[in-house]
Amino acid sequence: MADLTTKIGTLTLKNPIMPASGTFSEELAEVFHLDTIGAHVTKTITRGKRAGNPMPRVCEVGGAMLNSIGIPSKGAEWFVKNVVPFYADYDAPLVISISANTADEFARFAEEVSVPGVAAIEVNISCPNIEDDGKAFAMRPGPTGDVIRKMRSATSLPLWAKLSPNTGEVVEVAQAAEAAGADALVTANTMLAMAIDSRTGCVRLGNIMGGLSGPALRPITLRMTYQCARAVAIPVIGCGGISAIDDVLEYLIAGARAVQVGTATFISPTTMPRLVRELEQALVGRGLPSVDALIGTVEVAYEAITLAEYA
Amino acid sequence: MADLTTKIGTLTLKNPIMPASGTFSEELAEVFHLDTIGAHVTKTITRGKRAGNPMPRVCEVGGAMLNSIGIPSKGAEWFVKNVVPFYADYDAPLVISISANTADEFARFAEEVSVPGVAAIEVNISCPNIEDDGKAFAMRPGPTGDVIRKMRSATSLPLWAKLSPNTGEVVEVAQAAEAAGADALVTANTMLAMAIDSRTGCVRLGNIMGGLSGPALRPITLRMTYQCARAVAIPVIGCGGISAIDDVLEYLIAGARAVQVGTATFISPTTMPRLVRELEQALVGRGLPSVDALIGTVEVAYEAITLAEYA
Amino acid sequence: MSASLCVVPDSISAGAPRPPSIHEVGARIKSHEWVNGEYRLLVLDAPASILNCEPGQFFHLLCPQTDRFQPYLRRPMSIYSFDAARGTLSFLYKVAGAGTGALAELQPGATLNIVGPLGKGFEIRPEWQRPLLLARGVGLATLAPLARECARLDRPLTAVCSARSPELLMSTDLFRSYGAEVITVTDAEGNSGVESLTTLIERLIRSRGIDAFFTCGSARLMRMLQEMGARHGIVGQVALEQQMACGIGMCQACVRPFRRETGAVNLRVCREGPVFDLQEVL
Amino acid sequence: MSASLCVVPDSISAGAPRPPSIHEVGARIKSHEWVNGEYRLLVLDAPASILNCEPGQFFHLLCPQTDRFQPYLRRPMSIYSFDAARGTLSFLYKVAGAGTGALAELQPGATLNIVGPLGKGFEIRPEWQRPLLLARGVGLATLAPLARECARLDRPLTAVCSARSPELLMSTDLFRSYGAEVITVTDAEGNSGVESLTTLIERLIRSRGIDAFFTCGSARLMRMLQEMGARHGIVGQVALEQQMACGIGMCQACVRPFRRETGAVNLRVCREGPVFDLQEVL
Ligand SMILES: Cc1cc2nc3c(=O)[nH]c(=O)nc-3n(C[C@H](O)[C@H](O)[C@H](O)COP(=O)(O)OP(=O)(O)OC[C@H]3O[C@@H](n4cnc5c(N)ncnc54)[C@H](O)[C@@H]3O)c2cc1C
Ligand SMILES: Cc1cc2nc3c(=O)[nH]c(=O)nc-3n(C[C@H](O)[C@H](O)[C@H](O)COP(=O)(O)OP(=O)(O)OC[C@H]3O[C@@H](n4cnc5c(N)ncnc54)[C@H](O)[C@@H]3O)c2cc1C
Ligand SMILES: Cc1cc2nc3c(=O)[nH]c(=O)nc-3n(C[C@H](O)[C@H](O)[C@H](O)COP(=O)(O)O)c2cc1C
Ligand SMILES: Cc1cc2nc3c(=O)[nH]c(=O)nc-3n(C[C@H](O)[C@H](O)[C@H](O)COP(=O)(O)O)c2cc1C
Ligand code: FES
Ligand code: FES
User: Fold this and answer.
1) So which residues of B are the catalytic ones?
2) Which of C187, C242, C256 is nearest residue B311 as measured by Cβ atoms?
């Protein structure tokens, strides 16, 4: 037996495995008992109704996928009335992901969704900031800080800032989120990418560009997780390309206090409960008493490979 | 027969297939005749001697690789005396890749290597700018413009700016390079990434982080190629994850006037000559008279997938 | 697609722990044969847990990695037949691209990972006493369990089966074995066009008293039935396809627009479908 | 590693078009057997073009993609034997991780893509009349062609073979068939430690008049021979390993530091090696 609990600020999760926003919904309850996992994270919603992006919305690219789902949303009111109550019967904390066009709108929205049943708010700042020429908030420390600061004064719920890999300033963005009062970081969202059908000459997503997710993303988001875990004191939640237990261990060793599983759930809907089981086995196998004992234990090996001892 | 020539500014290449810097050297002449490909691009050099990064310098991650070779270099003088003459016997233009710590040093270096036998200079601006807190030049439009502008007045050779995917401002960087006088862009270098051996808990590269290359990079650099080809008037050379003819076609369709092949040469050293042959076949198969007829022909399909006609 | 479309369904299944009804299982391949130059029949040994299916439902198949093909996402396939007593589940599929290409390489004895049963199947309402089924291509697979259900419910069925050529007509013997009247039309014989079919089906409506349409496999034929249905006041259902990622309802990849009282709504083909009201399809 | 190390070799092969000497070919697997619990012997049908090899050279193998293992980079393997007359090429390898794990799944008849021959092999200088070979583990594979070369050049060879246990001693019969005097030591028997071996080899130097060392397979034993060589003025060569990407000399992944007159230099194991002067290894 190993202790799988992990603390994300004031929240204690029974284990560090949770879904990534947009790859989880109530329907998964028909596949496994949703209380096997550490938390529930909903698809990003906006305050108003939105249709999302044109078709096709997904395609596969050599062992990974691209999506340009966008953020279809039935709006805040509908969500609070219909979705939040669904999760009331579960123990796992409900984390809701929200998006907005301006920092003020983010704040107003955070207030509206700070209702009983919601344990934390994940802030999807990968969406375009209409006050900054459409650049995503998460591209720069300034706008990221603004969003989190305004939300911080609008709600007392924990705020998880979900960072984007589409920036050269991830450490500065992470520190800005922390300074502005974020309780945790999620590293990271999808990477902007594209595919063309070379036979037809057509782009393969209706929205032309979309987000890369799945195994191909892992080395990039793992790097971000490592960089952020060293640069901030708040917990970092790793996300990107996790499908096997080794991937989970890699993120925890790099410094993540928990991980989110996205695309892998599409490939195998039972991935998360399997990872919970395998994590326990892996800890026991290594003689580790707890998840905590593994987090951030990465070692740096500067040595040359020496001539192998074949013995 | 199809016309495979492509123009990169004032240079005419006999075909659009060339190596990516750091994945090509004189030794490849022992595998195939180097005049089968469109150009020769050498590993980045620095003016002074450098040892490169600690071991291990490479690792593989699910269908892709990470490298932290760094830029080992015997210096400019040695290079001009020993490497440049090697290529004199070939018709394909010699493109040499250089790197430096400051914009002025880039300019001085460009002057020094503007010797007979060199057809163009590829500017590797993914290296840290010691005057900008170690941020790579290619992360921001300002430093990129500075480097190219200073080099522009120091040499009359064509300048190819090699961009980095590690920025959220690729279009601005591309436009800054163009405005400062770059003759072409190469999109792109490797993406900063990391891997940990979950069994030992050690980072898998001596330099901790390294560059992701190979198939996993392609959707990202293809997106950059498309963005840049639309944003600038100078030629864009696609680079990232190319190993099959469909990948070449994808980049050309997206707007690249030529492509660079990197990691694929490690997996199969005969990749480039194969791609040249297959490109000719593909053009003929599509009834296209030339590479030009394919470049930038990407079509955007906004339509919903309609109910398939199974007939 | 306008931003005013609603994008998630109005009803959400009631909350709280229930026993799982969607299963991810490894099923052994019992047999796997070509039925013609394009389609293969895949028969699996399946556990009882996943054989509580409705006609029109589908499974999501994890096609294998092979040297030639490396599919990543799962591939949706309609149930061609399911038999809880014998413990078998089968699919009839066209070998198209990477996914089905890889699938086609699997040998009997191998294990295939499948998720299901998924989606909402056909509903044969009590007032639909004299149904007509119009199938083309893959629709000949999707509509097979419906024909069995019509037999079980004692509704005399007329099955109009269309294909490019007579060799590609599949399932017709199966339809007949369920007691259906089978009428075949093919491009090769020149009697499968919308005009010929309109004449044929108008005649069947009059002579057989058709009161419901079921269709799958052709957008063109679906539009034709919508139009005829509207004209004659005949309702019905259609099984649709859309590219999918999750197949379960999580990702919103598979939405299509439908006409509802409140206006157009986007519904998930994997969840609210794949079977929809014929007249609601936009 | 200090920044003052030189990093590319001093000589660059003379310019200009030459006929290719490194080949990428698909070779048919003739046989593929376990030789003990850890090692497999892979024999390929190989074209003459790639059989112009030197002992100590290696090939770069494209291990296949399997359901269990998806290696990406090639894997370097020393030539265990090559025979231009019979058209065969073989490798003796230890099943370790993803690459060799995937390799081990290949069946006779299958095709393996290989690149080579690569690197610089052993050089038996005229003045080296009484060589001693010290091999452990994989070195028992790498040094086999050297033993054959010693036989061809008529140099009486003493082969000291070390392994964890007697079952893991490979190639000893092969060494004997080349006329070598074979001495085996194992951890199990307790005679493979540096101390026992020092005593043994000191004795052999005296009794056999050993004038050159060849070694491969153990850093510990290499250090021991460096030390003894320095003491007795005996030179020699060592075959080294280093992680590789290209295997041809393009990527600089495989460098190691060596002692040269001008100071320390980094040399590429794939190109300037894998065989190096024993005393130059740092
Ligand atoms: C609910 C449902 C039931 C289906 N039932 C059957 C069936 O019984 N028999 C049969 O032959 N086919 C059926 N199809 C279509 C089948 O899913 C596709 O032919 C298959 O996914 C093609 O995959 P591929 O990799 O071979 O082709 P590719 O063209 O290489 O596929 C590329 C991508 O597009 C998707 N795609 C391609 N064609 C379709 C399509 N028509 N519908 C949805 N996604 C598609 C694939 O899933 C994949 O993600 C059904 C589709 C759906 C949605
Ligand atoms: C010139 C040369 C000749 C060799 N000859 C032989 C031989 O004849 N027989 C034999 O059994 N082994 C030999 N090796 C070692 C062999 O290459 C490795 O055992 C093999 O690459 C392991 O791959 P893997 O995927 O099974 O193991 P993993 O440990 O999963 O490999 C991971 C990565 O590390 C590299 N790697 C692992 N071990 C070594 C090593 N010892 N040397 C270099 N790279 C390594 C792999 O190539 C791969 O890139 C040789 C190595 C070199 C450099
Ligand atoms: C289909 C799809 C939809 C997604 N929707 C959202 C979203 O609404 N909000 C969000 O923050 N991230 C969204 N993501 C990103 C995931 O939450 C996750 O960050 C990303 O997919 C990387 O993880 P993975 O490689 O495990 O999938 C989506 C990803 C996918 C594949
Ligand atoms: C081992 C290795 C070394 C590299 N060295 C350089 C370099 O010196 N300069 C440079 O501009 N790019 C360098 N690159 C990046 C490649 O030129 C190329 O941009 C990148 O690998 C993406 O292409 P690929 O996916 O086809 O490999 C290197 C890449 C690899 C794998
Ligand atoms: S395929 Fe994911 S919602 Fe339908
Ligand atoms: S492995 Fe590339 S230089 Fe040696």
Assistant:
1) 127
2) C187
